[in-house]
Amino acid sequence: MSQLSSKRVLRLIAFFEGFKGLVAIASAFGLLSLIHHDIRHLVFEIIGHYGIDPTHHYPELVLQYADKIARTPESSILMIAFIYAAIRVSEAVGLWWETAWGEWLAVLSGGFYIPFELEHLIKDYSVITLFICVFNVSIVIFLSMQLYKRINQ
Q1: Measured distance CA(67)–CA(37) in Å, rounded
Q2: How many helical (H) and strand (E) elements, i.e. helices and strands, does the chain have?
Q3: CA–CA distance, 44 with 119 (Å, rounded to integer)
Q4: To bridge 92 with a disulfide, which of 18, 23, 65, 147 should be the other Cys (CB 3.0-4.6 Å)?
Q5: What distance in Å separates the CA atoms of residue 89 and residue 21, rounded to the nearest whole number?
């Protein structure tokens, strides 16, 4: 892969990671706006609106998370979201500037999820899960190769 195309891929990954950080913050504020509402009832309304059976796997999973969110202190939601966003935005900045620490942070944070994604893929296979797993593994491999090149220069 040429130097120019490697730089483009790094920038694309940086943009994606920064975007995930911003989405985390927006999601946290969205959840906080729902904290004083009956989230379980809201989820039931949405599921019912689309005619989905609430006893199926994914609607049931969403209802379980709605219950967890309703019991979670607001400060915990904000703290988790801002820590996640800080990691993602730091990673994005490091990758954009093509720093070794940005690549290391991206490899470590992306590699952290791989065992969980593989376990989920084995337990509950779907094309989406396969795509996410392959996508993440591809990013980790690409960034590992970038680090290898950097070390051997």
Answers
A1: 12
A2: 6, 0
A3: 29
A4: 18
A5: 6
Rounded Cα distance, 95 and 21, in Å? 14
- Two tokens at 53? 């059976």
- Amino acid identity, position 52: I
The residue with tokens 């994005």 is 92
Cβ pair 132, 117 in contact under 8 A: yes
Q: Note down pLDDT in tens along the chain; length 153 residues.
A: 677 799 999 999 999 999 999 999 998 888 888 777 888 888 889 888 888 888 888 888 888 888 888 888 888 988 999 999 999 999 999 999 999 999 999 999 999 999 999 999 999 899 999 999 999 999 999 999 999 998 998
Please check whether residue 107 is in contact with residue 140, taking contact to mean a CB–CB distance below 8 angstroms: yes
Within 8 A by CB and 6+ apart from 22, the residues are 85, 89
Residue with tokens 């051997």: 152
